[in-house]
Amino acid sequence: MRRPRGEPGSRAPRPTEGATCAGPGESCFPSDGPLMCALEQERRFRLPPKPPPPLPSILRGGQRLEAALSCPRFQRRPQQHLIRSLAEASPEELTPHVMVLLAQHLARHRLREPQLLEAIAHFLVVQEAQLNSKVVQKLVLPFGRLNYVPLEQQFMPCLERILAREAGVAPLATVNILMSLCQLQCLPFQALHFVFSPGFINHISGTPHALIVRRYLSLLDTAVELELPGYRGARLPRRQQVPIFPQPLITDRARCKYSHKDIVAEGLRQLLGEEKYRQDLTVPPGYSTDFLLCVSSCGSVLPVRAQDPFLPYPPRSCPHATRDPAQRVVLMLRERWHFCRDGRVLLGSRALRERHLGLMGYQLLPLPFEELESQRGLPQLKSYLRQKLQALGLRWGPEGG
Question: What are the extents of the domains in the chain?
Answer without folding.
Answer: 72-240, 250-392
